[in-house]
Specification:
Helices cover 15% and strands 22% of the residues. The protein is α+β, with helices and mostly antiparallel strands and 265 residues long.
Length: 265
């Protein structure tokens, strides 16, 4: 089933300013041009036939614009921070430097289903694909949600990708336990939640891409799906927060839990 997740306060809503760069009006990836984001969230308690455990997973899609991606390709690049992943479509993006489908995010074992969903979306809008215009290069990235989701159940199907694309909108972006972030956790050993964050910053160009652009305002934004970071990696304003109170409570109970508060950007 699909669920609507209420919005929790962000750090800036609470008066916490992180970094020195100015955020955009929505402090989200959708502040950039005509970028759109869509989610499909899948939550259930499993089934007896076929036998399957609880589902806590989903799909998130990012569209650079609302037009035909195959005909209106956009510049793109692919950078690897941690190569322990199963991204699809990266090779052609690196080689040609363009993106021709939405970007789909999902769980590790559903990359194939997301790939097929993006293919179906492209074929429906472009009858020339595979005939007179060559093939299409879907881009799918993943992260494991196996701690909270029965990832072997393969509940994400191509139609969920089509639904997420159809639901993609500019403006406010749902964050946290939604879409591909539904089953993501901050620390696998402590069981703390992470989900899908989103942020955007404005900066002044210095040298790139050409001299006449120096001083012009540029925008950078991100909407990652990530999981399994150790608690010591959680940082706010450049300082380590350590073990969030929720993580310590989950492991040791409330009596050994400190009143540490952590907020995302």
């Amino acid at each position: 089933m699909n669920v609507t997740v209420g919005r929790r306060p962000r750090a800036r809503d609470l008066g916490i300013r992180l970094g020195t760069l100015e955020p955009g009006p929505g402090n989200a990836i959708t502040d950039v041009g005509d970028v759109r984001v869509g989610h499909v969230t899948i939550i259930d308690e499993g089934s007896a036939s076929p036998r399957r455990g609880p589902a806590r997973t989903g799909v998130t899609v990012v569209l650079p614009h609302g037009g035909n991606m195959f005909k209106q390709k956009v510049p793109a690049a692919f950078h690897v921070i941690n190569a322990f992943g199963k991204a699809v479509g990266a090779t052609q993006v690196q080689e040609l430097g363009v993106l021709e489908t939405p970007i789909a995010l999902t769980n590790t074992l559903s990359v194939g289903a997301a790939f097929e969903g993006l293919v179906l979306h492209a074929l429906a809008a472009n009858p020339e694909i595979g005939r007179s215009a060559g093939n299409v290069n879907p881009v799918v990235a993943e992260c494991s949600d196996a701690r909270l989701n029965d990832i072997r159940g393969l509940v994400v199907r191509p139609e969920h990708v089509l639904e997420a694309v159809a639901a993609a909108r500019p403006g406010s972006v749902a964050e946290g336990s939604v879409g591909a972030g539904t089953g993501m956790i901050f620390c696998a050993s402590a069981g703390c939640r992470w989900g899908n964050p989103c942020a955007r910053r404005i900066h002044r160009a210095r040298r790139w891409p050409q001299p006449r652009s120096v001083g012009r305002r540029r925008t950078r934004a991100a909407a990652p799906a990530s999981s399994c970071l150790p608690p010591r990696r959680l940082r706010t304003r450049g300082s380590s927060v350590g073990w969030p109170a929720a993580c310590r409570t989950a492991l040791h109970g409330p009596e050994r839990s400190a009143s540490t508060a952590a907020a995302s950007t």
